[in-house]
Amino acid sequence: MRNRKTSMKKIVTLSLILVMFLIGQRCPSVASTTGLDFLKIGVGARPLAMGEAYVALADDISAIYWNPAGLVQLRRQEAGFTYNRWFEDIGYYFFGYSHLFNDSVFALSVYYLGAESIEGSDDASNPTGEFSVYDLAFAFSYSRQLTDKLSTGLNLKFISEKLENEDANAFAFDLGALYKTGIPNLVLGLNIQNVGTKIRFITQSASLPLNWKFGLAYNLFPTYPVILTLDANKSENRDIYFGLGAEWWLGNNLALRIGRKFDSRIDDEFRFGVGLKDEDLRLDYAYIPHNILGDTHQFSVGFYFGKPEIEKAIIDKEKEATIASLYEEGMDYFNQKQYIQAIDKFGEILLLNPENNEALSKMKEANQLLMEREEGGKR
Question: Has residue 2 been placed in a domain?
């Protein structure tokens, strides 16, 4: 009688073997305590080349995976596609689309990991014919700018795993945050991934691969930016592991990247990548060496489109928020009779908007009061 592989252990082990081969684990025979491990596979050639340290950068369509809060950094609609062909006809696909709406961003995405066909066998090792196996996920994402420094994001995911005629489904969500610190060019990111239901296959079930991702991104130079990123990951039943990456933009169109993961369970080496970008198109490439499986080459493409007014509206809104913050600081100084500092703040407002009559009036008033105080002191 044909073996239907009704054991959850076999299902999880098969999924785990696929993922372990993909990420270069040393011991694929180790039992997994979670299901749907394909959710651990990163998306996008750019983040992968940077050592998968991307939670605080996350400024393209791949932010859906790394940190949905980063989607608010997109200035136009974007569609992105990643395709990886691995060993034994295993393919990994990602497609995402984002749409801007006022100070929010909505996005849809699809993840697919599968093999064209696998030769089956029963418990006696007799061949039973070929069958298909795949993992699939659909995600709806929402991101919103809460303040000029803080944004948040949410992924709602439907996940499915299929082996021959049996399948299992689960629901999950990711919750992310992005915070621009008071330190110039330093951004912090947080993403809690795969919080959800257990996956149940026949009579057995397993938890989803819950992961906490925290990191920072620092831009060294404003003209020819060198961006440094660092991520820390804490998964269930695993020690903390790290990712470190760097990206150097040579002008506005060419980027060079390097990165590495630091994980005691993975014999990882340095990765390298390059990116090309113009007004409407982005191409990214990553070279990732594997000691066991050999080297892999990963490609991503992104398309930007939409009306320029969208970008202008977002920039104007950010400028309005900055002006409001400067005016509040200026009034605090004014009320404390620190007129020099108040004049500086009102002056910054006029640099952003020379027609801001309220700031101009207050600056004149502060200047007049300062002169009166100085004259009074001379007497």
Answer: no
